[in-house]
Design goal:
This protein is α+β, with helices and mostly antiparallel strands. The strands form four sheets. A six-stranded mixed sheet has the order 12-11-10-9-17-18. The chain has a five-stranded mixed beta barrel with strand order 1-2-3-5-4. A hairpin with a 6-residue loop joins β9 and β10. α9 crosses α18, α12 packs antiparallel against α13 and α15 packs parallel to α19. About 2% of the residues have low confidence.
């Protein structure tokens, strides 16, 4: 059988040219390709950003995906990313797409796995209960009122409830936060087993749809609930001996209080030993209003100042000895010594999570110095961020994570741009030029870190401190060259009982900062409340900040646009016109310049504070007719019937005149269909769906907390009180 060769039709050269033009049209413009190629190894810094976006996608879902769906999504996108890398490795954009898909699906699947691995929420007793547990940590709390002393809170692990219902229960797999009585003289130490009588409550739901989700935070942190002690603590067995670190902290705080007094001693004890309980609320408000609150929270700034003081002192001392300077690696010795001093300082101040995170970054910096690599770079920062997100991807929504990395990104990017001007200012090393360059560096540090964290601070704390730059320009240099170095000398002199002169000198610097904070806090608009930033606005701010700091070239200035839109979302996003608390015990109506609030007790204080922060409005009572019972309120184009108080428990229904023209009926008691064909929010509504927010525009929009958060692992089902502490009986 003969086979004829296949004939390939001749193509017209003009048709080949058209096909080549079509292929070229599918490629990105050359300017885009050139801009991406210019990034070089900087592109690896986007891996933690993609992992964080995957975690945010999981948290933003309105439902809880099943294990099967998580596995399918992870497998599908993982194979897609692997395919892009396999088939398009020689091409730029398929390779970038493959890495992006793998990083996003890693963050999504990692957080879904972390959420599934958390132990279930237990049933907490609803009445006063005697419980036994092991003290995990002891924390000093600021006083609740000006006339009270500072309080103490213990974190209990392996707690057991001594109730007939829970007899024989296994120890809780989650922890409990319990505030001790103020008159409790005998304080437990970490590791001791105690018994006390306390009132417990589970983590509260959000105060309004879109507010802070304490139930989600408790789910991932391993917290079962909180409460307060009703009786003094009793020890089970002999009280454990305090740890050496805890004893050292108490000794430092005691000796500091013996030399200094009042709030100066409290601030010094905070900086040297992490004992922040003695700082009064008035002092905290002054430092917060002036933008100096970060000086009262031991974190990366204090660790950096301690390490810098040790490194500079040791290196200058070694370099002054000719034999050592010529033969020893002075730079590496100073860096390792600074890291060891920083680790000791972190342990002395309580080893809090922000300081531990900063210590991890400092370890990479020290490793770079020892190995002769670049000290501060975006790549080292991205490695730390990637490790944190892989271990705990939920950290992407943590305020300390966002603020710390935003500050460091701003510092690295800013100094990368301003390095040449600073070198020219330093000149040939004349003493006055060195002093000027050092002062300029401190000023830039405060300015860059403050500007980078300002939008994040506005989103989480609902306040704008326009004078923070002025306050930090003076306070941070004082802390760097005076307060912290002298404080370190005081710590070194304490074993020899010679700390008094250094503590007094440190106290003078602290008093200057106190006066500065009070003066700046008294400036007009020093602490300007701002409304709540929506979640998409904060996402735009963080993405724009990442592009502004991570992208090379002038194109990075395009990151200012999403940052500006995210900040503007504070005023552009619609605000609720009516709030109803999660127990219907508190109602509020928004007016242009005030928030009208119904009668409430002290139990709703936190809810009211959250509403005030969300709207940035002062509080005033509802009209007298609302306080007496039923009243009609006009909100935008709608009329709402309010019943914030009802002694009849819903037995007395509103009449037809009161229901005429009403668009919504809100009642603290059961509504019982008091207004026919009118939607209602009552005690049963909030029992099912949590807090409510009402948007009264042309059309009435009612949003509940359950509809906002969806069916997630950390959202309790209707009527659910937690997993029983005893195993259920086997079914027949």
């Amino acid at each position: 059988m003969k086979t004829e060769p296949l004939s390939v039709p001749d193509l017209d050269p003009r048709e080949l040219l058209v096909r080549e033009e079509r292929l070229d049209s599918l490629q990105p413009p050359p300017a885009v390709i050139r801009s991406v190629l210019d990034q070089g190894r900087q592109m690896i810094c986007w891996l933690p950003v993609a992992v964080g976006l995957g975690a945010v996608i999981y948290l933003a879902l309105p439902f809880e995906p099943s294990i099967l769906s998580v596995m399918l999504v992870t497998l599908l996108f993982g194979l897609s990313g692997t395919g892009c890398l396999w088939w398009g490795w020689q091409r730029l954009f398929p390779r970038l797409l493959g890495f992006a898909l793998l990083a996003v699906v890693t963050g999504f699947g990692d957080l879904a796995l972390q959420a599934r691995m958390q132990p279930p929420m237990p049933v907490l007793p609803t009445h006063a209960t005697v419980l036994t547990g092991r003290v995990q940590s002891l924390e000093i709390l600021p006083p609740r009122n000006d006339d009270e002393d500072d309080g103490h809170r213990v974190t209990l692990a392996d707690a057991v409830f001594e109730t007939p219902v829970d007899a024989g229960m296994a120890p809780l797999r989650r922890t409990l936060h319990i505030r001790l009585r103020d008159d409790d003289d005998l304080l437990p130490e970490p590791g001791s087993t105690i018994s006390l009588r306390a009132m417990l409550r589970p983590p509260p739901p959000p105060s309004w749809p879109g507010g802070r989700d304490l139930q989600r935070e408790a789910w991932f942190s391993g917290l079962a609930g909180s409460g307060y002690a009703l009786a003094p603590v009793s020890f089970i067995g002999a009280p454990s001996r305090p740890s050496r670190i805890e004893t050292l902290r108490e000794t430092v705080a005691f000796r500091t209080a013996a030399v200094l007094s009042d709030q100066t001693a409290a601030i010094a004890a905070t900086l040297l030993a992490g004992e922040a309980g003695g700082i009064e609320q008035q002092t905290r408000e002054a430092f917060s209003a002036s933008g100096l609150a970060h000086l009262l929270a031991v974190a990366g700034l204090h660790l950096g100042l301690v390490m810098a003081a040790v490194i500079v002192t040791l290196r200058c001392g070694l370099a002054s000895i000719e034999y050592i300077a010529l033969r020893w690696p002075c730079r590496q010795i100073a860096a390792v010594s600074g890291l060891l001093a920083g680790a000791g300082y972190v342990l002395l101040t309580g080893a809090h999570l922000p300081s531990l995170r900063a210590l991890g970054m400092a370890s990479l910096v020290t490793l770079a110095i020892v190995t002769g690599r670049r000290v501060l770079s975006m790549r080292s920062l991205s490695i730390v961020a990637l490790l944190i997100l892989l271990v705990s991807p939920v950290s992407v929504v943590d305020v300390s994570f966002q603020m710390s990395f935003a500050a460091v990104m701003g510092l690295i990017a800013g100094y990368g741009v301003l390095r040449e001007p600073l070198m020219r200012l330093r000149g040939e090393g004349e003493w006055y030029r060195v002093v000027a360059s050092y002062g300029a560096a401190l000023t830039l540090t405060s300015l860059l870190a403050g500007l980078a964290t300002l939008p994040v601070s506005m989103a989480h704390f609902g306040a704008l401190q326009p004078w923070f730059v002025l306050a930090n320009l003076v306070a941070v240099p004082l802390a760097a060259v005076w307060i912290m170095p002298v404080g370190l000398l005081a710590l070194v002199a304490m074993p020899f009982h010679a700390e008094a002169p250094f503590l007094k000198l440190m106290g003078v610097g602290i008093r200057i900062v106190q006066v500065l904070a009070e003066r700046v806090a008294a400036f007009p608009m020093a602490h300007q409340p701002v409304p709540a930033m929506p979640g998409w606005g904060l996402l735009l701010v963080m993405c724009g900040l990442c592009f502004l700091c991570l992208w090379k070239g002038r194109v990075c200035l395009a990151g200012l646009l999403p940052v500006a839109i995210g900040v503007a979302s504070i005023w552009l996003a619609p605000k609720p016109d009516i709030f109803v608390s999660a127990d219907a015990g508190l109602m509020a109506v928004r007016r242009p310049d005030v928030l009208l609030v119904g009668p409430h007790s002290g139990l709703e204080r936190r809810t009211l504070e959250d509403w005030q922060q969300a709207l940035a409005l002062p509080v005033a009572p509802l009209p007298p007719d609302c306080l007496a019972g039923l009243c009609r309120i006009s909100v935008e184009a709608q009329t709402v019937l309010l019943r914030p108080r009802d002694s009849s428990d819903g037995a007395i229904l509103p009449d037809a005149r009161q229901c005429d023209g009403v668009s919504l009926f809100i009642s603290a008691s059961p509504a019982r269909k008091g207004c026919a064909d009118v939607p209602s929010i009552d005690r049963f509504s909030v029992w099912r769906d949590g807090a409510y927010a009402v948007f009264a525009g042309r059309a009435l929009m009612i949003v509940s907390d359950r509809s906002w958060r969806g069916n997630r692992l950390w959202v309790p089902p209707v009527g659910w009180h937690g997993m029983p502490n005893l195993p259920l009986a086997q079914s027949e």
